[in-house]
Amino acid sequence: MTGEQTVLQAKRLGVFHCQETTSLGDAVRQMVAEDISALVVVDPEGRLAGIVTRFDLLRALVERKDWSDQPVSIYMAREVVTVGQQTNLLEVANLLLEKHIHRVVVTRNEAGKQIPLAVVSAADLVYHMAR
How far apart are CA 88 and CA 84, in angstroms? Predict the structure, then answer.
């Protein structure tokens, strides 16, 4: 991995997402089917609204018997660490370490709103280190 490589050079475009109204049960099934650890949550116009992770789902399981019927909006994180398309991988690694997080969402700005393009995780960075 070269630290200068940008997130868009390292990651294919596309992001697994759901709506704020998606049930946690549906989110769990999507995450298992896609073998992913988080879903980006978007509003009806496709703008970034939050992120829901495996840990959010576990918290729901512990807190509520009816967890699977609850909307993602109750358990998602609304504050998401984002990076621009030209951010290099070394900057992402530093962000992950500094903020003690597992992933960032790559976005582009559209009329003041963030449109998610990709997710770059610690696992992605380790993969590039091995190449």
Answer: 9
Contact 22, 121 (CB under 8 A): no
Place of tokens 């770059």: 120
Encoded tokens for 17: 């997402």
Number of domains in the chain: 1
**pLDDT value at residue 4:** 78
Range of the domain at 44: 7-130
CATH number, domain with residue 121: 3.10.580.10
| Cβ within 8 Å of residue 87, ≥6 positions away | 6, 7, 106
Tokens read off for 112: 């003041």
User: Is position 36 within any domain?
Assistant: yes
Distances (CA, A) of 24 to 35, 69, 84: 16, 6, 29
pLDDT tens by residue, 58-110: 999 999 999 999 999 999 999 999 999 999 999 999 999 999 999 999 999 99
Which stretches of the chain are DSSP H helices?
Answer: 7-10, 24-34, 54-63, 72-75, 89-99, 122-130
Query: Model-level pTM greater than 0.85?
Result: yes
Considering the domain boundaries, does residue 1 fall inside one? no
